[in-house]
Every structure is written in structure tokens, then in C-alpha cells.
């Protein structure tokens, strides 16, 4: 009992709660918020992980529990793993690609800072999608435009937050932040391409040696 | 004991034989449809083969008429069926009776022009007017003779439609030949011809056989990639590349309202394989179904067949449903007036009810005739399909449903569902009646089965309003609480502070 109490009262836990609360501040005051997030140590990786996990869980709920007039996917072909990859994939790829790029252009951010920035930028989407899930059950087809509008707002909000995060984390000007963000998107594409090519080449290589071995085996067996 | 074992063995043998003899006979055709997710699902047979006619089976004046050779068109007029036996340069006229029997009543190999015989050469299309103005007159696309013959009931030539020459914006140069293949005539006597190598739509001739122009050209599709290529390419490259031209129609038929149904054997994004043209040449086909009427939605590869359906013929039934014939897989697709897919049947093969080279389709009431041109001189046949009980039931229900008589269709839809629980429109039909009667909750559930967002929203709107009226006190309580509680709390805090300060 005392251990639990101690954990709750410890400095680390209080910082974790504060950094979680701080995510709401970054949504409202992104320029100020993202500066403090890394430079004043007001954010934490633990909070970032929490947000990402919540976002993934919420996305699963959003996709499965929304009314069918809003989101209609056949549940037999729905996969939580796919949702997980869909969210984590771009996030981690972007973190790596952006870090690779910004270290060359004297960006101040570390890879964990970029990850944190992205995670904190997900918060408005998290909240709005949670609301959409339940709102979709009380609207008719004619009122679905309201949901579409909310959904668009959450998207635009996310993009703005990402750009602000890039600007403040790397201590860039706005133009440079925009440019590096776009370039890191291109870098993501290149990384995916190299991954795919690598796997294709490796599987072809394996297939080549496999058939070679089989051919040899056939000849040995025939004597 | 020995006796018992003997009986048991006989019983087992009998049971083992029984199912094959029962089910083996039943599985003569396969009918399917697509559900609301676009996945194929089995359906009961709506049409069954009632006659499978080969030329070798037919006799005229006591003589065998011989196999059909690559027949290309059929046309139904009353209870007569005109079969264009193209390879044998003859027209076979058959009479069909109520009890699915039939007989050949005439074979024509020539028409009379000023008392002289003029023979046909590889004719490809025929049309017999059902209209009042020129009832019973015959138009024949005499393809290799480069003419369309306009004949009266006794096969006397009234007019010969030849190469349109330089009239209008004729696409055919005077040197190139005119190969009319399919044709149709509307109630005012205008003639619509599909000719080989003409892709500006149907050629339209007035009632005197004078070329009047083209109608209903399919839209040309230019992709951004094509545009980019045209921008980059040199003059020579541009000339060497295939011209970007519209696709040709391959068949047409006129429904009883005078609209022209046309088919194109190609599916792309902005090109529809079935069109219904009004007299201006605009496509007025209703496409309200879950998917556009394009034939198969799922298609695999195999047995030399791949890609989407390629329509070669279309016919409109008396209730304005229409059936299209797919050359790629030998299937028949039935759609209702709103463009919902009802059922698909047929398939590739040379059994009865299957097709090797689909060529033409026509209907006698709700009875369908499908013509298979065969490959080479083999398997050319005419297949007669008759409605089953299930097909008739669906037609009845649809007729009531599309007239807006939801209550009458309600019971019919239940009957349909008893035979086929997969029939999606039945759920919508029932739900519409429930919606009208005020059973919103039940209607919502049924609309949900069909992914029908719009009607679901409509039912939900009513449901929500009633719910709000019934539970209005909740809103009153919530609003009151929100208004009163903070004020009370504020007051209490204020009093406490005053007490403390005093």
C-alpha cells in the first residue's frame, strides 16, 4: 500500500501527469507549447507513449464502434494489427527520416523529441475521433456533413501541429520547418522503396540458391 | 443375424446411391448475385432452360435444315422468332407455342426486288417493326452486300440503304466499305445501324433511308498520362501510336418505350458498358444500384478468361428490367429498372444453358432466347429460358415495389425471402413498408443489413424525434441541473466564506 502511495506521490509520477496535461496546452498554444515541450522538459516520453497507445485503442474503437452511416467496413476483414501498423508505421518512419534530415540541417531535436512532437500532435485527433464515434450514432444521413467538417478540422489541426512541432523542436524558421517536413515525407518514400527493394532482392537471392540446391539434389539422386 | 447384415448392407448401399441421383439431376445451372459488400452469393434459379435448339434438330418441309453456321442475331416478333443464320446466308423463322414447342415455318435466303430475287450475303442483323406506323416490316443488315434491306411483310424490297456517302459528317470515306451489323428501328421509322469500324455512335437514317448523322457516341477517354505523352512525343511517335478513339458499340435494341439500349464490350472508369439512349442520344439509364451495371464485380483468371464482363447483347423485358449477355464468360445478368443486379446465370461451356460464343439475346414476354454463335461450325445453338416460380415472384414484388405500393410488395418480399434469404432488395422493400407504418426501430435494422445509409438516416430521424419527445424530461433535468447547480454551489461557497471571515 505504501509502495502505491509512494509511486503516486513520487516526483516522476507527478511529472508524468503534468506532461500528460501539458498535451492539452500544446494543442491550444502549439508554438509556445512545443518549445516548452522539449526545451523546458515539460513533456515526457512516457506521456508520448501513453498518447500513442490511447490513440491506437481509440482508433480501433472508432473504426469498429462508429455507426455504419459514418464508417462502414466489413468486420470480418478488420484487423487491429493493421490499425497498429497504420499508426506506428508512418510515425516511426517519419521520426527516423526527419531526424536523418534535420541533423544535416542543424536541427536541435533528437529522435525521441520528434517522436514526442508527433505523439503530442495526435491529441486533437484523438479527442475528435472519440467524439465522432459517439456523435455518429445520433445523426442522420443529412447531418453527416457536420461529422465530415469535424473530421477535416481534426486533420488540418494535426498538420498545423506537426509543422509547429518541427519548427520549435529543431529551432527553425517557419519556411525551413515546412521544407524539412516535406523533404522528410519524400525521405519516407525513399526508405519504404529501399525496404521493398531489399526484401525483393533477398527473396530472389534465396530463391536462386534454393533452386540451385534443388537442381543439384535432383542430379545427385539421378546418379 | 446374417439376414440382418444383408438388409443393413442393402440399406446402406441404397442410401449411398440416393443423394447422387437426387442432387445430380438438380445441379444443372448455377445462379448467383452480389450482396451489399459486392461479394458473390448463390441464388435460386430465376430462369431455367426450357429448350435447347440445334440446327440439326430442326426440320422444314420434312427436310433437316442442317446445323447453324455462326448465327449472329435473333429477333422476336409476336410469337415468331427470326434467326439470322449468317454463315448459311439464310433467315430461319420459327413459331413458338405456349407449351414450349416450336416449329420452323419458313426459311428465307432471298428477297424480291422488282420481281427478281436478290440473295443475302452473310447477314448480321434483323429487325421486325412492332410499331403501328410500319408494323411487320423487316429491316435486314445484309452485311457482305454492304446494304440494309428494308422489306415488307412478304419480303419485297421497299428500300435499300447503302453507303451513306458524303452526306453529313459521315466517317466512312467513299472508298471504304459499309458493313452494317446490328440495327433497330424506332416508332417513327428512323433506322439506327451499328456498322463495322464506325465508332461515332449509331448511324441514324431517316425513314427514307437517307443518312441523318450519328447518335450517342461513347465519350472519349483521355488519361493524364496520355496527355503527357502527347505533349512529349514527336510527330512520328504520335502517328505511330494508336489513335485515341471512342469505343464502338456492338449491339443495340429498342425497348417498348422507344429508348435504345446499347452495349459496349469494354469497361473503364467513365465508360458504361450498357447505355439507354433517348432520342437525343443522351444516356438516361438509371444507375441507383449498389454498383453500376457492369456485369461481374469479382473476376478471377482462368480457363483463358480474364478481366471484366464484355457485353454483346441486351434486351429489355416488358417490366423494363433488362438482361445483358456477357461474351467473356457466357453469363446473363438481369438488372431491374433502378440498376440493381437481380441474378446472374449461364456460364462458359457447351452444355445446355451454357455458351461458347454469345451472340444475341431477345425476349418473348418474360421468356428469353439466347443465341450462341458457336466456335467454327460447332455448338451454334438457340437456348430458350423460362422464368421459374422464384423469378416470377421477384418480378411481381419488384413491380409493386417500384410503383411505390410498399404494402402490397411487403408480403411478396416475405415470399421471396422464404426462397432466398440472400436477396438484398427484399430487406429494403420490407423496411420501406415498416418505415411507412412507423416501425422505425425495425426498419433501421433492416436498412442496416443492406448498408442503406440514406434510408437508415430517414428512419433514424423519425426514431430520434419520437425518442426526444418521449424523453423530453431528461433534457429539462439536465439543463436545469446545469443552470442551477453552479449557482447553488457558488452561493454556498460565498456563505461559507462569509461565515469564516466573520
Number of strands of chain B: 29
Mean pLDDT of chain B: 84
Total tally of structural domains of chain A: 1
Strand content of chain B: 25-35%
Structural class of chain A: mainly alpha
Question: Can you tell me the residue ranges of chain A where pLDDT is under 50 for at least 5 consecutive residues?
Answer: none
Q: Can you count the helices of chain A?
A: 9
Helix segment count of chain B?
9
What is the fourth-level CATH superfamily of the largest domain in chain B? TolB, C-terminal domain
Q: Which features characterize this protein?
A:
heterodimer; A: mainly alpha; 9 helices; B: alpha+beta; Neuraminidase; Serine Threonine Protein Phosphatase 5, Tetratricopeptide repeat; four-stranded antiparallel beta sheet
Explain what you see.
- The complex is a heterodimer of chains A (223) and B (502).
- Chain A is built from nine helices and no strands.
- Helix content of chain A is 82%, strand content 0%.
- Chain A has 223 residues and is mainly α.
- Chain A has one domain.
- Chain B contains nine helices and 29 strands.
- A four-stranded antiparallel beta sheet of chain B has the order 3-29-28-27.
- The longest helix of chain B has 30 residues, at 472-501.
- Chain B folds into two domains: 31-399, TolB, C-terminal domain (Neuraminidase), CATH 2.120.10; 400-470, Alpha Horseshoe (Serine Threonine Protein Phosphatase 5, Tetratricopeptide repeat), CATH 1.25.40.
- Helices cover 28% and strands 29% of the residues of chain B.
- Chains A and B meet through loops of A and α8 of B.
Amino acid at each position: 500500500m505504501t509502495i502505491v502511495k509512494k509511486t503516486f506521490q513520487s516526483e516522476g509520477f507527478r511529472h508524468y501527469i503534468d506532461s500528460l496535461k501539458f498535451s492539452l496546452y500544446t494543442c491550444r498554444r502549439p508554438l509556445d507549447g512545443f518549445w516548452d515541450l522539449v526545451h523546458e522538459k515539460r513533456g515526457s516520453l512516457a506521456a508520448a507513449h501513453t498518447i500513442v497507445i490511447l490513440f491506437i485503442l481509440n482508433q480501433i474503437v472508432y473504426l469498429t464502434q462508429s455507426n455504419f452511416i459514418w464508417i462502414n467496413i466489413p468486420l470480418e476483414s478488420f484487423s487491429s494489427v493493421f490499425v497498429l501498423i497504420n499508426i506506428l508505421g508512418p510515425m516511426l518512419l517519419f521520426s527516423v527520416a526527419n531526424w536523418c534530415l534535420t541533423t544535416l540541417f542543424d536541427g536541435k531535436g533528437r529522435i525521441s523529441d520528434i517522436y514526442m512532437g508527433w505523439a503530442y500532435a495526435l491529441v486533437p485527433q484523438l479527442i475528435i475521433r472519440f467524439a465522432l464515434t459517439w456523435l455518429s450514432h445520433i445523426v442522420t444521413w443529412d447531418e453527416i456533413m457536420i461529422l465530415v467538417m469535424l473530421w477535416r478540422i481534426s486533420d488540418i489541426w494535426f498538420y498545423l501541429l506537426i509543422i509547429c512541432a518541427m519548427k520549435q523542436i529543431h529551432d527553425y524558421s517557419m519556411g525551413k520547418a515546412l521544407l524539412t517536413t516535406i523533404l522528410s515525407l519524400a525521405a519516407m518514400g525513399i526508405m519504404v522503396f529501399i525496404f521493398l527493394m531489399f526484401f525483393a532482392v533477398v527473396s530472389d537471392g534465396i530463391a536462386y540458391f534454393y533452386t540451385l540446391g534443388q537442381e543439384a539434389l535432383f542430379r545427385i539422386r539421378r546418379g | 443375424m446374417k439376414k440382418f447384415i444383408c438388409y443393413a448392407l442393402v440399406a446402406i448401399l441404397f442410401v449411398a446411391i440416393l443423394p447422387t441421383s437426387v442432387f445430380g439431376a438438380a445441379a444443372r445451372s448455377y445462379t448467383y448475385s452480389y450482396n451489399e459488400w459486392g461479394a458473390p452469393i448463390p441464388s435460386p434459379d430465376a430462369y431455367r432452360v426450357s429448350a435447347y435448339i440445334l440446327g440439326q434438330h430442326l426440320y422444314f418441309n420434312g427436310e433437316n435444315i442442317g446445323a447453324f453456321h455462326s448465327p449472329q442475331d435473333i429477333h422476336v416478333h409476336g410469337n415468331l422468332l427470326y434467326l439470322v443464320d449468317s454463315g448459311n446466308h439464310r433467315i430461319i423463322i420459327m413459331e413458338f407455342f405456349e407449351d414450349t414447342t416450336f416449329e420452323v415455318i419458313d426459311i428465307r435466303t432471298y428477297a424480291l426486288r422488282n420481281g427478281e430475287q436478290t440473295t443475302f450475303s452473310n447477314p448480321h442483323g434483323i429487325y421486325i417493326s412492332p410499331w403501328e406506323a410500319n408494323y411487320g416490316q423487316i429491316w435486314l443488315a445484309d452485311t457482305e452486300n454492304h446494304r440494309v434491306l428494308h422489306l415488307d411483310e412478304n419480303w419485297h424490297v421497299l428500300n435499300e440503304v447503302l453507303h451513306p456517302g458524303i452526306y453529313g459528317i459521315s466517317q466512312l470515306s467513299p472508298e471504304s466499305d459499309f458493313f452494317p451489323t446490328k440495327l433497330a428501328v424506332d416508332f417513327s421509322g428512323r433506322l439506327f445501324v451499328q456498322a463495322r469500324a464506325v465508332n461515332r455512335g449509331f448511324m441514324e437514317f431517316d425513314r427514307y433511308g437517307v443518312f441523318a448523322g450519328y447518335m450517342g457516341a461513347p465519350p472519349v477517354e483521355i488519361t493524364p498520362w496520355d496527355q503527357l505523352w502527347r505533349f512529349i512525343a514527336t510527330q512520328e511517335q504520335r502517328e505511330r501510336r494508336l489513335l485515341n478513339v471512342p469505343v464502338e458499340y456492338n449491339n443495340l435494341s429498342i425497348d417498348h418505350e422507344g429508348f435504345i439500349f446499347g452495349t459496349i464490350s469494354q469497361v473503364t472508369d467513365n465508360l458504361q458498358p450498357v447505355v439507354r439512349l433517348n432520342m437525343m442520344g443522351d444516356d438516361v439509364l438509371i444507375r441507383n444500384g449498389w454498383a453500376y451495371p457492369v456485369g461481374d464485380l469479382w473476376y478471377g483468371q482462368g480457363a483463358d478468361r480474364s478481366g471484366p464482363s464484355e457485353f454483346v447483347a441486351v434486351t429489355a423485358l416488358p417490366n423494363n428490367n433488362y438482361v445483358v449477355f456477357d461474351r467473356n464468360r457466357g453469363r446473363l445478368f438481369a438488372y431491374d429498372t433502378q440498376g440493381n443486379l437481380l441474378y446472374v446465370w449461364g456460364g462458359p461451356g457447351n452444355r445446355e444453358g451454357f455458351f461458347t460464343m454469345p451472340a444475341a439475346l431477345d425476349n418473348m414476354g418474360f421468356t428469353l432466347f439466347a443465341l450462341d454463335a458457336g466456335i467454327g461450325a460447332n455448338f451454334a445453338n438457340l437456348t430458350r429460358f423460362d422464368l421459374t416460380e422464384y423469378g416470377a415472384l421477384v418480378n411481381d414484388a419488384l413491380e409493386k415495389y417500384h410503383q411505390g405500393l410498399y404494402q402490397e410488395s411487403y408480403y411478396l418480399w416475405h415470399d421471396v425471402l422464404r426462397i432466398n434469404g440472400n436477396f438484398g432488395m427484399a430487406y429494403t422493400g420490407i423496411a420501406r413498408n415498416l418505415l411507412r407504418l412507423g416501425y422505425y426501430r425495425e426498419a433501421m435494422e433492416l436498412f442496416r443489413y443492406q448498408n442503406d445509409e440514406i434510408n437508415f438516416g430517414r428512419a433514424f430521424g423519425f426514431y430520434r424525434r419520437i425518442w426526444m419527445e418521449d424523453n423530453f424530461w431528461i433534457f429539462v433535468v439536465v439543463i436545469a441541473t446545469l443552470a442551477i447547480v453552479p449557482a447553488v454551489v457558488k452561493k454556498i461557497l460565498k456563505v461559507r466564506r462569509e461565515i469564516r471571515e466573520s
